[in-house]
From TrEMBL:
Species, as recorded: Cupriavidus agavae
UniProt-recorded name of the protein: Sugar phosphate permease
Residue stretches making up the Major facilitator superfamily (MFS) profile domain: 6-397
Transmembrane segments: 40-65, 157-177, 280-299, 305-327, 339-365, 371-390
Molecular-function annotations in GO: transmembrane transporter activity
InterPro entries assigned: MFS (IPR011701), MFS-Transporter (IPR052952), MFS_dom (IPR020846), MFS_trans_sf (IPR036259)
Keywords: Membrane, Transmembrane, Transmembrane helix
Coiled-coil intervals, chain numbering: none
Superkingdom of source: Bacteria
Length: 406
């Protein structure tokens, strides 16, 4: 039986807003780095790696937090942690940046397991790819918000004011989600909240590693997430320092990249539902991702604005557009009632790619003294992902572990 449309729409809207603010908060330092005094190139990659190191822990702990407190409360606590991290960054103290990154990651980790649990209860199985992709547009929407608003606020007032405004928005969205608690967080009488971490960890990773389909998707997500954060984390710095574009114009191109990710997530999710082949759609995305990364590495000051925007749009639509298909498949393959747990386990692998990717990208760029060479090298990563997907398509699959979430 399909859920009421109003209930499904309210759930989608709430999870989308939470995802958007959480993502904008994690990217705020990378976007504002050119405006913050004394920020070295490599420190952007280190910051993002620490964010997603915290995200790895947060995704695992977040699944337990969802079970203990409910998905809405877990989301609210995640946004509160983002506000604290932004406040730490606004002090301007370099010594507090690693702490801010870890706090931001710990807050970001529970967001996706919580939203997956909520959407699994309100989404019809035949629409799961589209709805999960639509919710995941909150990630590029958050990047668009960061790229379009933060540089403008920093230019008009200060970079500290930009961080403060984003923190206030995160707290406001957390408060606005309170009415959803009655729907998703209320427990039957006598059912207490428990955070039994060890059993949850065994079940979480057992579910992911014991299913070849989940295992292969998690491995590919590691590679794709490394590409995604290398784009989101370094594109602004690359455009301003090597290509020679002004901060405001670079912010516009960055926003176009994130905006294309929004359109891509919706289109790819719909295509995956239409074709019934999420894996095949991801192979196509990998090829386009590789080609656009290669073209990005060829940018020079002689490139006109339109081709710059077109290449970055394809890069955003692919490198930022794959997540909804992945999360929809994880939710579809999860055993009944364990969507948050399985999503948390799969995201542990995803975040490993996010932790390693930006740091490796930044290290390579620094050693080669060139971000353009780093983007050229990045083009090989999605091709490896495509090879894994094609190999997985030829492997026999076990029987389904559970029914599609409802």
């Amino acid at each position: 039986m399909s859920p009421p449309p109003a209930r499904a729409a309210l759930t989608l809207g709430g999870t989308l807003a939470v995802q958007m603010l959480a993502t904008a908060s994690t990217l705020a330092f990378a976007v504002l780095a050119p405006a913050i005094p004394g920020v070295a190139l490599a420190s952007v990659g280190v910051f993002l790696s620490l964010v997603y190191l915290g995200g790895m822990v947060g995704s695992v702990a977040g699944a337990g937090l969802v079970g203990a407190l409910g998905p809405v409360r877990a989301s609210q606590l995640g946004l509160a942690a983002q506000a604290v991290a932004l406040a730490l960054l606004a002090t301007g103290l370099a010594e507090l940046r690693p702490l801010a990154a870890l706090v931001s990651g710990l807050g970001y980790g529970p967001i996706t397991p919580a939203s997956s649990q909520m959407l699994a209860r309100t989404t019809a199985p035949e629409r799961i790819g589209f709805i999960f992709s639509l919710k995941q547009t909150g990630v590029p929407l958050g990047g668009l918000l960061a790229g379009a608003a933060l540089p403008a606020l920093a230019a008009s007032w200060s970079w500290q004011a930009a961080l403060g405004g984003l923190a206030l928005a995160a707290v406001t969205v957390a408060a606005a989600c309170q009415p959803l608690r009655r729907e998703f967080d209320m427990r039957p009488a006598g059912q207490g909240a428990r955070l039994a971490l060890a059993p949850r960890l065994r079940q979480m990773f057992g579910d992911v590693l014991g299913d070849s389909r989940l295992r292969s998707m998690a491995a590919v997500s590691l590679l794709f997430s490394a590409c995604q954060l290398s784009v989101s984390g370094y594109l602004m710095v690359y455009l301003t320092t090597e290509v020679g574009i002004g901060l405001t114009q670079a912010g516009m191109i960055y926003a176009i990249t994130q905006g294309a990710g929004i359109a891509g997530r919706i289109a790819w999710g719909h295509l995956a539902d239409l074709t019934g082949s999420p894996r095949g759609v991801l192979v196509c995305l990998a090829v386009l991702m590789s080609g656009s990364a290669l073209a990005t590495g060829l940018f020079t000051a002689q490139w006109a604005l339109v081709p710059l925007c077109l290449v970055c749009a394809v890069l955003g639509a692919t490198a930022i557009g794959w997540n909804g298909i992945y999360l929809g498949e994880v939710a579809r393959l999860a055993p009944p009632g364990r969507v948050a747990s399985v999503t948390g386990g799969a995201l542990f692998c995803t975040y490993f790619g996010v932790v390693a990717g930006p740091a490796a990208f930044g290290y390579f760029a620094q050693r080669m003294h060139s971000l353009s060479l780093a983007y050229l090298a990045l083009a090989a990563v999605p091709i490896l992902g495509a090879a894994l997907l094609l190999r997985g398509a030829r492997s026999p699959h076990p029987a389904p572990t559970g029914s599609a979430p409802r």
